[in-house]
TrEMBL record:
Domain Tox-PL: 99-202
Name listed for the protein in its UniProt record: Uncharacterized protein
Residue stretches making up the Immunity protein domain: 234-317
Domain of life, source organism: Bacteria
Entry-linked Pfam families: Gln_amidase, Imm35
C-alpha cells in the first residue's frame, strides 16, 4: 500500500471519528511493519496532544484503529517478515483499550472502596483541553508538576504522606512525534507504600521508560473512607449495590434479616420484581441466593447451581479449593 494511500485511509477514519477536517494524521507514517502503518494524529491547531494520539492502518485492508493506551507498540508485528493471519482488533475490543481516562477515574473510586466501573470511551474525550477537564472534573485540588522519572513520581507521592494520590500522564514519542499516552494512578497507603496502578488492567502498572518523553503528575490528598462495618445493614447495602449492577432494577432482596448471618458472611434470598408482581414461578430467578462475605474486599456472589449447599458449607468453613461461583445470569431465563 503506498504511503499516500495509507495516509488517506487514516484521514478518512479520523474524519469519521472526530468530524470532518477536525483532526489530521502526520504527513508520513512514523512506523511501518508488515502488518500496518502507524501515524501520529492531532486536532488541527491544537497545542495539546490527544491521549489516543496514534492510529494504525492495517496493510490487509482491515479498518484502522487507535493504538491502545497500555502497550501501544505490543502488537504491531515489529521484527516480523510476514503478517501471517493477523487481524486488526474490532471496534468493540479496541474501544476499551483507549479508555485510560475513564479507567483512572474508576481506579480513584475503587481505592476509596466505592463501587465503580469505567464509562465507555467517546471520541469527544479526545478534544483539546482534555487534561484540564479531567483535573477540573475529578481532581480539582491537584498540584501539577513535570517529573524527570519514575523515582521522582514515587518520591513526590511518598512525600505527601498517607492518602496522597496522583494521576500520572505518561507521554510517549515515536520518531520524534508525540503519540498515544497513558494515565496511571498512584496511591500512598497507610503502611507507607506507594503503589502505581493501571486502571485498565486492574493490576500494578508497568513503569515503562523506552518511549516515554515525559511524566506529568497531578498530586492531591484525600483521606480514604473507613471500611463499612461488617454488620447486617452494610451487608444489605452491598447486596443491593451488587444486584443493581448485575440486573439493574429487575432483582431485589427478599426479607433480609439477622437469621441470614453465617460465619463468614450473609446468605440472602433474592428474586425478580416480576415474580413478586405475578407469583408465576416462570418469573422466578434461577440464582435466587446471594452471599455477601464479611471481608470488605470480597465481592458478593451467587451459589453454583450444582450442589449449592455443600459448596456453601465448605466456603463458610474456610475452604480455599472451591471452584469459582457463577457469574450473574439473566434475570429472565
Amino acid at each position: 500500500m503506498r504511503v499516500t494511500r495509507t495516509r488517506d485511509v487514516a484521514q478518512q477514519w479520523l474524519d469519521r471519528a472526530y468530524g470532518g477536517g477536525s483532526a489530521e494524521p502526520t504527513r508520513y507514517a512514523l512506523l511501518e511493519t508488515p502488518r500496518l502503518a502507524v501515524f501520529g494524529c492531532r486536532f488541527r491547531g491544537a497545542a495539546e496532544p490527544m491521549l489516543a494520539g496514534a492510529i494504525a492502518v492495517p496493510a490487509n485492508g482491515d479498518a484502522p484503529y487507535p493504538l491502545p493506551n497500555d502497550r501501544p507498540f505490543g502488537d504491531l508485528g515489529i521484527g516480523e517478515e510476514h503478517p501471517g493471519d493477523w487481524r486488526a482488533p474490532a471496534e468493540r475490543d479496541w474501544v476499551w483499550r483507549v479508555n485510560a481516562r475513564n479507567c483512572v477515574v474508576a481506579a480513584d473510586a475503587a481505592v476509596d472502596r466505592a463501587p465503580a466501573s469505567a464509562l465507555p470511551w467517546q471520541p469527544a474525550d479526545e478534544r483539546p483541553g482534555w487534561w484540564d477537564r479531567l483535573r477540573a472534573g475529578h481532581f480539582p485540588q491537584a498540584e501539577v508538576a513535570a517529573c524527570g522519572g519514575w523515582d521522582e513520581v514515587l518520591a513526590a507521592v511518598r512525600d505527601g504522606g498517607p492518602d496522597t494520590r496522583g494521576v500520572v500522564w505518561v507521554r510517549r514519542e515515536l520518531a520524534g512525534v508525540e503519540v498515544t499516552g497513558h494515565l496511571l494512578y498512584a496511591h500512598h497507603d497507610d503502611d507507607g507504600r506507594v503503589a502505581v496502578l493501571d486502571g485498565m488492567t486492574g493490576a500494578p502498572a508497568d513503569l515503562e521508560t523506552a518511549t516515554v518523553s515525559g511524566l506529568v503528575l497531578a498530586r492531591f490528598h484525600r483521606p480514604r473512607p473507613a471500611p463499612e462495618p461488617a454488620d447486617l445493614g452494610s451487608a444489605v447495602r452491598r447486596a443491593e449495590r451488587h444486584l443493581a449492577g448485575a440486573y439493574g432494577e429487575e432483582v431485589v432482596l427478599v426479607s433480609p434479616g439477622p437469621a441470614d448471618e453465617l460465619e463468614r458472611g450473609w446468605l440472602f434470598a433474592c428474586t425478580t420484581r416480576a415474580y413478586l408482581a405475578s407469583g408465576d414461578f416462570h418469573d422466578q430467578l434461577l440464582d435466587a441466593a446471594l452471599v455477601v462475605p464479611k471481608h470488605p474486599a470480597e465481592a458478593p456472589f451467587a451459589l453454583p447451581n450444582a450442589d449449592p449447599w455443600r459448596w456453601l458449607a465448605r466456603w463458610d468453613a474456610g475452604a480455599t479449593d472451591l471452584p469459582p461461583p457463577p457469574a450473574p445470569g439473566p434475570a429472565s431465563w
